[in-house]
Amino acid sequence: MDPESDVTDDGRALVRRYYDALDEHDYGALEDLLSPAFSQRRPDRTFEDRETFVAFMREKRPNPDTSHDLASVIVGDDRVAVRGRVTDDGTTLFEFADFFELEDGQIGRLETYSR
């Protein structure tokens, strides 16, 4: 078994679980995937910790009934890059690029760009 392949598979699976948790409104699972020091920077706001991010997704998300359609996932060491689109009932709302930094099996940092 190739250890590098295991890291790639683990990173890909971790990020897939992140999008699944968002799409399925599984905020307990989402919290488990994020490190306590998690931060996210995106064009419209910045989240400095896991609790604030999860609370926003649970209570203040502008379009809660969306799905993430992933077009590509690129994994390298402790980083994962994803390109995709957010859809609502099959209609594309916007395209995004997410850049994850992984720490000890959790997501430590996320930068999001959208158009």
TrEMBL record:
Keywords, in A-Z order: Isomerase
Residue ranges annotated for the SnoaL-like domain, each copy included: 15-107
Gene3D superfamilies: 3.10.450.50
GO MF annotation list: isomerase activity
Full protein name: Ketosteroid isomerase-related protein
A UniProt-annotated Pfam family: SnoaL_2
InterPro entries: NTF2-like_dom_sf, SnoaL-like
Domain of life: Archaea
